[in-house]
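In response to reviewer comment 3 from the previous cycle, which asked for concrete evidence that the modeling workflow produces usable outputs, we include below a single protein chain processed end to end. The sequence was submitted unchanged, and the resulting structure tokens are shown without manual editing.
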Amino acid sequence: MDTGEPEPAGAVVAAAGGEKRAALLRQITEEGGFAFVASAEKAAAGDLRAAEAAREMAWEQLHSGPWRGVEPAWRDAYALACLHVASIRAGDDRRAALRALDMGLIMGGDLLRGELQAAVARVPAYRNGDSNGDGNGIDAERWMEGLSRNRDIADVFKVLPVKSLSCKQIERRTCISLEAFIHDYFLRESPVILSGCIDHWPARTKWKDIKYLERIAGDRTVPAEVGKNYVCNEWRQDLITFSQFLERMWSPDCSANLTYLAQHPLFDQIKELREDIVVPDYCSAGGGELQALNAWFGPDGTVTPLHHDPHHNLFAQVLGRKYIRLYSASISEDLYPHMETMLSNTSQIDLDNIDVKEFPRMEGLEFMDCILEEGDLLYIPPKWWHYVKSLSISFSVSFWWRTPILPSEGS
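The workflow returned the following structure tokens.
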């Protein structure tokens, strides 16, 4: 009977969520996923074995071919299965529930992202008396020593590519206006270091506290890169808790198996950390629209090989120091991009071990470089090639944005 009273907001949201799930299951049925749908329906009634089976079936679909070729519906199906697993496990295994939800956020589609985030909020990442991670944690004093490590210039040169800091240095300005940034650098597609612009971020102090990071993120699952860099044959990704990641930075074989949280949308996954940073006004240059907000966190010695990105990039050095070398987009062919499509934005040249005989055009190329200090912002224009090496424990944030394409530019 219609009483004329509006439905409670919670009921409306629940109904919308139910409609999304029903539509998804119909789509999966059309894709031939009858077994998944049958398991998902049992999982919705609280059957853990069926929930795990549904998640495994969706996982197999995610790995049935190239990632870009995966049907979006199966990514959403994987997220749905993760929600079911977490809902059932939340009562008896908090960490298993959190891991399921994180896997849904990392590997799942966008359809149920709001439900995943809401479910995370209902499962506290930390409780008093819990021990985060599976190890003994990081000693706070040792952590601060690692952050404050400051090599003298002679030691710095020993770990940098040849000719480092011998060419043109990237210009440095102190917290200039948006108008000056647009006129002097953005429109000219010229790199610049901006100092004193992120001192007000809570992250500048909070992230120096290892106990804060463990409390906020310790039990959360993240994808960590292991190996020299992503073009090496030995490179791999491990899905580990944030606490395990922190502990790996101090393991005896850390230098041989560098573990790096690289280009990961950590702030979409862990909202508490997102609240510690602020999108700089410079990212609105050109009517910009933020495309990605990524974290780069790792020990001394991590390397991102020479590559370029399609977007404007404002790179914030929150903790630690990094060496960064830039080459203009105008000399791309002289930097020998990989021929494979997946690596076409990455140079074949290893700047830490340059083979001039194999790559003769590389010799004598002009570049710009710098040591990016804690608290600095670096603007990297689109398609500019950059190589990055950490000189201490380092936590960085990259803001990618793009500008509207004018009709004349798109033709």
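The two ends are 59 Å apart (CA to CA). We consider this sufficient to address the reviewer's concern, and the full set will be provided in the supplementary archive.
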